Amino acid sequence: MASAQPAPSAAVEASAPAQANGNGNGNANGTDNKRPHKRPNPGNGGHGKAKDWKHKKTKREKNITEGSSEDVLRHDIQALLESRKSSEPTSNDDNTGDTTDELLPEEGTEADVEVLELSSTGDGLAMRPGSNQVYVVPFAIPGDTVRVKVFRHIRRENQTVADFLSVVKPSPLRDDSRIQCKYFASCGGCQFQMLEYPEQLRLKRRIVEKAYRNFSNLPAELVPTIQDTIGSPLQYGYRTKLTPHFDGPPGFRPSKRAKNPKIPFESCPDIGFMQKGKRKVLDIEDCPIGTDAVRQGMIRERERMQQEFKKFERGATILLRENTRRYPSGGDEVAPEEGQLPPYTVRTEGEGFVDVKSCETDSKATTTEYIGDHIFTNPAGSFFQNNNSILPKFTSYIKERILPPASSSSSSTAAAASPIKYLIDAYSGSGLFTITLASVFQHSTGIDIAADSIASARNNASLNGLGEDRCKFIAADAGQLFKNVAYPRDETVVVLDPPRKGCDADFLAQLRRFGPKRVLYVSCNVHTQARDVGVLVRGEGDGARYDIESLVGFDFFPQTGHVEGVAILNRHDGDAEPVQEEAVEQTDS
What is the pLDDT of residues 308-324, one digit of tens each? Predict the structure, then answer.
């Protein structure tokens, strides 16, 4: 499927007002034409004198980690500049990509820019006529011409951070009648509410494509075509967890609270989420991407804060987590009817059951949710996927593909003699994959570094009728897992679901030395996933190397730029036998 329609090639003239400067002269760029322009110091936002600026990394550059939002944005900006450079006629004085001597709008002034591309962070990438500077603009899409307020120039990276003000000329892709939240374009949460949902899915497919192009370090022929992004059944009302917050009283300083006198709130503080590009909480009465139960909880907590705000002396985060109580049809207990429901609860009917949903705010309280026929309980404050509507589709996709397809090379005579019988679920959390996939395998092992997660996983296994003869859970660092694994590598598949930073090098090296027949990698950060998959495919050093069978995105967070990635890999035939590891003791607690 195609990605976003190409933006018009002609840029729109900037409309920044003339700004007076120190000697009373100014132009539309807010700069003094009579004053010689100095090379910028990248460390101070593009102003002042530079010293060896081309050769030394700034503090900002040193702090950018691989696969982070800043790193992703930098790749997207350079790709845009390179594409424009290759498509425009060259000249002897061509300086595409160099803005060190370019006159740019003064910070704080307004300008009109044309959005040419969408970054993988969800922000628009825009430019002005005759300029090599890329403006990073939230809430803008390719084809838009928007008015922005310049916040900061980062000349060394050809980047300008700008605040969105208004749409001057809308993109053909934009339809603001689709926007369902009155805080859109102020709240830092959603970015795509003006887009039809199929277009959001096309853009997210492109995000996965760019991730593997920029971060995998693999030749194009080793990366299969990215499949169409699989959408969420719900595009609004899907989030089962929200965490609005409020700041401390005016004058409150968290680092000095022990020394400062107590400062009470004089009125109820703003409660909500951060404004885009600002360190200020935007007061939000309702969030339409939350489930009905979570939205009811938000109403309740805002009402409570109106009565209790004087009890607080500092800012805080409010947990809103959906909790489900299920009443099977024909069971001993009968679900209350609509008029009998407790306040702030929601009643829904399914096939063979009625669910009564409430909102939990105590992080230590136990919450329950269902995925198909499976039940999961977790502490309300712990991590669990926040879009329950897509989880049945997601777990079914994984289950249908956890074993090699019948037509693959894995169905050869040698492979058929050793079919996959075992599952290792690294970063298992409270057991989502171990439990939903248990019926496929002879035995499964889940591992997580957090003992609390392992306790939840064991409880969830018991709730789903799975004893230790079917699956077990180990509390240990995943990096130590393969040193004492008992499963034969030719009969084992490994599921990876690491945090956003991805897997560390030691873990990937250990995984390759063990060399399982098949690997399924799930990630909330497709950029670090692409980096790690590249390591497995290149197979440098000891251990197995892998071929990519498929790559696909899942849209867990509609209206935002986030996409969940699923990569399936098979061990390359003919690779070396596993390297023997020194055994280490593992604990079951």
Answer: 998 888 899 999 999 99
